Amino acid sequence: MAYWLMKSEPGAWSWDDQVKAGTAEWDGVRNYQAANNMKAMKIGDKCFFYHSVNEKQVVGVVEVVKEYYPDPTDPKGRFGMVDVKALEPLKTPVTLQQFKDDERLNHLHLVRQSRLSVMPIDAKSWKLVCKLGGVKP
What is the pTM of this model? Predict the structure, then answer.
């Protein structure tokens, strides 16, 4: 199993939207590196759901339930999407500032490549963020 972080603007698609939908497409990604990360996702991989823009915090955990396939919202057909289902909210959101301030986390793409919308998370960091967020890894 691999671990990931997926960013969403809460005004466009929030954790609450994901929970209401249960399972939904993660579409609209238009960055090649993020798309390549999504291509590497496998069914059962876990992802942090991150609210970007004003909130800048991990708020929940989702699971990949359908692997990469064409995104019909891309008129040029270059990009794809995956389907994810909501698993659980974090009891305590983990902020971008916490990632930056923690030597064990500040190596992650979230800090180093802040504009990247889909990124890998190593297993050790996954466990730490789960602990900070009050959920089981």
Answer: 0.97
Look at residues 35, 120, 58, 45 and name the one whose alpha carbon lies nearest to residue 85: 45
**What is the rounded CA–CA span in Å between residue 82 and residue 34?**
12
* Residue (of 72, 68, 24) closest to 49 by Cα position: 24
Task: Please report the DSSP string for 23-92 in residue order.
Answer: EEEE-----HHHHHHHHT--TT-EEEEEETTTT-EEEEEEEEEEEEEE-TT-TTS--EEEEEEEEEEEEE
Residue 40 tokens read as: 């590497």
Q: Report, in angstroms and rounded to the nearest whole number, the Rg of the chain calculated over CA atoms.
A: 14
In this predicted model, what pLDDT tens digit does every residue of 91-126 receive, in sequence order?
Answer: 999 999 999 999 999 999 999 998 999 999 999 999
Q: Are 82 and 68 in contact (CB under 8 A)?
A: yes
The separation between CA 16 and the C-alpha centre of its own chain, rounded to angstroms, equals 15
Domain residue spans in the chain?
A: 3-133
Q: CA–CA separation, 11 vs 20, rounded Å? A: 15
CATH 3.10.590.10 fits domain 3-133 = yes
